[in-house]
Design goal:
- Helix 1 (about 15-40) packs antiparallel against helix 8 (about 185-210) and helix 12 (about 310-330) packs antiparallel against helix 15.
- With about 450 residues, this protein is an all-alpha fold.
- The termini are far apart.
- About 75% of the residues lie in helices and about 0% in strands.
- It has helices at about 15-40, 40-50, 55-85, 85-105, 115-135, 140, 145-180, 185-210, 225-235, 245-275, 280-305, 310-330, 330-360, 365-395, 400-415, 420-435.
- It has a single domain, classed as Growth Hormone, Chain: A (Up-down Bundle), CATH 1.20.1250.20.
Length: about 450
Amino acid sequence: MALFSHDALNTGVRKREVFGWAMYDFANSGYTTVVITAVFAAYFVGGIAGKAAWATFAWTAALSASYFIVMLTMPSIGAYSDLRAAKKRLLAITTVGCVLSTAALAFTGPGTVALAIVLIIISNTFYSYGESLIAAFLPELAKPAAMGKVSGWGWSFGYFGGMLALGLGLGYVLWAQGQGIKASEFVPVTMLITAVIYGGASIATFTLLKERATPNPQALQQSGVKASLQQLKKTFRQAKQYRDFRSLLLCAVFYHGGVAVAISLAAIYAEQVIGFKPQETMVLIFVLNLAAALGAFAFGYWQDRIGHKLALGVTLVGWIATCVIAAIVTTKGGFWGACTIAGLCMGSSQSAGRAMAGMLAPRRQRGEFYGLWTFACRLASIFGPLSYGAITWMTGGNQRIAILSTALLFVIGLLLLMPVDMKRGRAAAERADADADAGEPAGVPQGASSAAQLVTP
C-alpha cells in the first residue's frame, strides 16, 4: 500500500480499509473473468447447447434476464441500504448468494441448458447487487479530488483477482487436457475454483471495511421496503436537480452496453470467428485482464489530473477502434491487437464511470445513487449483448456484423457524454448535502417555494 497516500483519503479512513474495499474487486473479478467471459460462456455455447444456432442468443438472453431483475430492484435496494445503513450487511448476503450459485454451475453439462440458464441468472444477479453495493463505499473512503485515483486502485487490483482465478483454472485445464479429460469434466472444476476464490478473498472485505453510514431514525419506524420506495420516488421527482448525473446515466446506458458485449462475448467471438482454442482463449483473457489492470491504475491517476469526463471520452474512442479492428481482422495476431486496446480501455472506462457517479452523488444518498447507476448499467447490459445475439441470429451467425454494430453504442455514449458538466453536477450534490444538514429535504434548494416541498411523498 506504499503507493497509496493518505492525502487521497477522507479523514479517519485508514489504508487497510481501502485495501479491504479493493479486496472485494479482487474477489468478484474471478466471476466475470472465468464465468461470464473466458470459460463458461464459450462452454455454454459449444458444450451445453451443442453449438445450436440459438445458443449465443440463449446466453445473452440469460444474462439479460438477470440484468432486468437487477435493473428493477437495485435502486430500491440502494435506497434501503442508505436508510438502514445496511450496505455491508446486504453485501454479505449477496456475496454468499453468488458464491453458492457459482459453485452450483459445477453440476451443469451437455444438455443441461435450463439448469445452466437458471444458475447464470441467479449468480449474475447476486454479482450485480454486490458490485453496486461495494461501489457505494467509494465516496466514504476517498476525497472528491482523488475519487478517480482510489477507484482505479480498486479496479486495477480487482483484475489481479480475475487473473488469479483464470490462471489457476488455466493450469488445471492444461493438466486435465494432458490427462485426456473432457471439457464436460474440467469446466465444472473451474467453477469451483472461482467460487472458492470469491468467497475466500471477500473475507478481507468484511473484516476490514467499516459501515460509516448511520440509520435514518424515521426509516426505522416504518417498513424498510416502504421507506426505501418513498425515498426512491422522491429522488426520481428531484431528478431535475441532478441534470448532470442524469446525463451520465444516459451515457452509461450506451457505453456500458458495448462493454457488456466485450465481457460476455469475447470468448465466443474468439473461438467461433477467429478460431481460438479454449486454452488460447484463456491466455488471451488473462493478458486482457493484465492490460485492464494497468489501464485502470494509470487512468485513475490521469483522470484526476485531466478530468473524469475527458478521460472517459478517450477510452470510448479506444472502444470504437477496438470494435472496428475486431470486425475486420482475420488473424489471431490482429485480434490480439484489438483485445489489447480493449483491455486498456475496459478497466479505465468502468473505473472512470464509477468515480464520476460518486462525484455527482449527495453524501446521504450514495447507495441510492449507485443503485440508479446500476439501473443504467444493467439496462445497458440487457440490450447490448441481447442486440448482439439477435443480430448474430438474424444474419445467420455473422458475428462480424454484430461486433461492428457494437461500435455504434460507444459513438452514442460519446455524444451523450458531451453535455455533462462535472463542476455543475458536483455543486448540485454539495447543495443537497447542505440542505440535508440544515434539515431540509435533499435536493431542494434553500429558500425553495412550498410547491417544491411537495417532492416529499
